Structure formats: structure tokens, C-alpha cells
What we know:
Blueprint: H1 3-12, E1 30-32, H2 44-47, H3 50-64, E2 68-71, E3 95-96, E4 99-102, E5 108-110, E6 115-123, E7 130-139, E8 142-151, H4 154-157, E9 164-165, E10 170-173, E11 186-192, E12 205-206, H5 211-217, H6 222-225
Parallel strand pairs: 1-2
Antiparallel strand pairs: 2-4, 3-12, 4-11, 5-10, 6-7, 6-9, 7-8, 8-11
Amino acid sequence: MDNKNITDLLQLNQNLFHPVVNFDGSKETIAKLDLSAANLSFNNGIYNNMNLFQQFIDEQHKTSKAKYLVGGYNELREMYRRSELFGIKEEPRSLHLGIDIWGPAGTKVYAPLGGMVHSFKFNNNFGDYGATIILQHQLDTVNFYTLYGHLSLKDIENLRVGKFITRGENFAHFGPPEENGNWPPHLHLQLIDDIGNWEGDYPGVCKPSEAGRYLTNCPDPHFLLNL
């Protein structure tokens, strides 16, 4: 199924999705967070230092007075240069394929719709996902996957492949840096059409030259957030 059709399907069913995180739109707000190379206030001096990176996120929360900072889909980011995982020479991976929701460690994550645990893994590399869960869904006979990265280790300790996760079930939490790949706490949510042979992992960042293929296979998941 192509990008446009999946996006149309999600938009059509948006009112059926449970919010991915607790959010009261009548009292709380969200704010867009720009971590692209165009944001000159966010530089390598910040993203290469965990304390400064966390201070930057905290300041964005304070300034915006928002409960969550959200953004990142199809965003070119220089910050992945902090880890060799994304490549340093030639053409590094720098185009972000999911949406990030930045908030405190321990923030509860809910399933936007019912699904089955496809796979999970502790991707324990510097700059990686850390604890990761992938759910498989079917909506109007269309099969697709959602990836949740940077979670808490406790979320995968007693998990099993094939377990059914109900709509609105609290199945995960934002992990602390030592469990989430060494990032300030946040959730990486990614929509995947064809997951191929991947298990517990799937690229969340691609080379700009590969953008067409990856963005088609990983459409914008913002309709799933239901914030």
C-alpha cells in the first residue's frame, strides 16, 4: 500500500485512535521542537553533551509552557553525528523518519489502536533506540506496523511476541538515558508499511539520498498521535 493510501486511511479513522500519551487539550499544550540544522541555537556543542542537551530540552519546555515537545518527521538533523551508528564519512544518515515526543522519563505510552507484538529488542548502542517495541496492526484489512523507541527496559522484560495489546493499553514508558540509547527522555514513534525481515529494530533515520524509498515506506504518523 502506498504512502498516500495509508495516510488517507489513518486520517479517516483518526477519531478511533487513543492518544499515545496522556494529554488534556482543554488545559495543556504541545509545542513544535525544531532539531534541524536550520536551528542555529541547537549545535554540536549541545547535542554532544548530554547535560547541555537535557538543559536545552528543559529550556524549550519552560519557554513554550508546553507539556510535550513534538516534531521531527522528515527533518534533516545534524545531531546524529554524535554517534558512529549513523555514519560519519561519506553520506551519514540524517533524515528522521518518525515523530518524537519529548517529556519526562516514565511518561506512559498507550497503544493508539489494538495490535499484536511483532517484536522487541534492547538496541543498546550509543545513539540507538534503546528498549524498542514494534506492534503489528490491521485496519480495514490493511496491515502495517508501529515502532516505539527509547522506552524503559521494564517494558520488554516480560513481553512476548504475539501478545495482543488492546487500544488504549499502557504498554510502555519513556526510558531514562541509560536505557533509551543515551538521549534525553522521549518517544520515537514510527509508522512502517513493509517491515521486511526486521525484528525489534528498523531504521529511524536514513541517508537523504534514500529519502524517497524510506518516506514512502514510513509515512507521517501524526494522525496516530491523536493529541
